[in-house]
Amino acid sequence: MMKKTILTGIRPTGNLHFGHYFGACSNWLKLQNEYDFYLEIADVQALTDNFNNPSKVRKNVKELTLDLLSIGIDPNKVHIFIQSQISEIAELTVYYSNLVTMARLYRNPTVKTEIAQKKALFGNDGESVTYGFVGYPVSQAADITAFRGELVPVGEDQLPLIEQCREIVRKFNSIYGLTLKEPEPLLSPTPRIKGLDGNEKMGKSLGNAIYLVDNDETLHKKIMSAVTDPQKIKKDDKANPEICMVYYYHKLIQNENLKTVCQECKAGKRGCVACKKELIQKMQEFLAPIREKRTYYETHPEEVDHILQEGTKIAKEKAKETMHDVKIAMQIDYESK
Ligand code: TRP
Ligand code: SF4
Predict the structure, then answer these.
(1) Is pLDDT above 90 for 190?
(2) CATH assignment of 216-294, among 3.40.190.10, 1.10.3210.10, 3.30.565.10, 1.10.240.10
């Protein structure tokens, strides 16, 4: 049986943190064994927000690639590619842009939230919202359909973008004839990972993230500052681990002593400092193979370049096939006559 095609993307705007890893990437590690997997480093999409800071995006394409390889994304199973290198995506975006109304884009909940966030940051009436930004769901529909993605692993916040993609596909097919496939979202089993401060979401902009590249010193500082049960003042106070971030991370990285941590915490037989130190050690163990792989790839940059070139080559071939069909359907297939 043919493997189903999976496509997902990630914006190169920073390093991977635990939120990415446990919220999305660890699921990709499983999916890579079962599907034909296209993993897009969405640099064009990152530029919609960072068009005036290209060096940030460029630097993070490299950082993100190293992060992805270091966590065990296997380039023999996954086509890792850079969005800007597939010109067909940009081409499709232009054609799809006729199939979406401005009103529909402004109504997209993800776009709406992001515009509200921008306004809160920069004030004003939306004057600073660019055409490219409002239109990024169209570009994301091109990302997915260029590779005939059937399943799209995403977090809940991205569901409106998948829905918008499905609408574009239906509209395209109804006007130009059955050409494109409607993708289905594949929700991550653990979409949200809490931050060090107890916030429901770990995020770069929230300043509450632990990064996979954090060194021991940073890791120590961060875990020591993690929010614990505020009722626990003294070492032998009884506490509730369920409201403690330290306990939450013990659970996340599957500390095999979890039961003991829980029981001792509840019984007032465990001090928070010792508990944090144990977590730091467990995190170091968790990070050890990731750090080792990263060092390998950092010292073999030609191998990383080769992986991206190969991924991009395969992605390009697939996108060309789609483009061919799209042009025939739209009657702009001049070169294939
Ligand atoms: N918008 C996604 C995010 O911010 C990243 C992304 C880009 C994506 N292209 C994609 C996700 C295509 C799924 C499919 O997380
Ligand atoms: Fe949290 Fe551990 Fe302190 Fe309990 S003992 S409150 S689990 S840090």
Answers:
(1) no
(2) 1.10.240.10
3-class SS of residue 7: strand
Ligand nearest to the CA of 164: 1
Nearest CA to ligand 2 atom 8: 272
Amino acid 285: pLDDT: 97
152-167 average pLDDT score: 94
The reported pLDDT for the residue numbered 129 is 86
**For ligand 1, atom 9, which residue shows the shortest CA distance?**
9
What residue ranges do the domains of the chain occupy? Answer: 5-194+301-336, 216-294
Task: For 76-135, write each residue's pLDDT tens digit.
Answer: 999 999 999 999 999 999 999 999 999 999 999 999 988 888 888 777 666 678 999 999
Full-model pTM: 0.94
Q: Which of 223, 216, 193, 212 is nearest to 289 (CA)?
A: 212
Tell me the pLDDT of the chain averaged across its residues: 95
Residue 209 CA to ligand 2 centre (angstroms): 19
Domain 5-194+301-336, what fold? Rossmann fold (3.40.50)
Domain 5-194+301-336 and domain 216-294, same fold? Reply is no
pLDDT band at 312 (very low <50, low <70, confident <90, very high): very high
**CA 136 to ligand 1 center in whole angstroms:** 10
Cα distance between residue 318 and residue 320, in whole Å: 5
Q: Which residues line ligand 1 (CB under 6 A)?
A: 7-11, 40, 42, 45, 140, 143-144, 152, 154, 158
Pocket test for ligand 2, best of 223, 258, 261 (most atoms within 8 A of CB): 261
Q: DSSP of 90-152, one letter per residue?
A: HHHHHHHGGGS-HHHHHH-HHHHHHHHHHHHHH-SSSTT--HHHHTHHHHHHHHHHHTT-SEE
Residues in the chain: 337
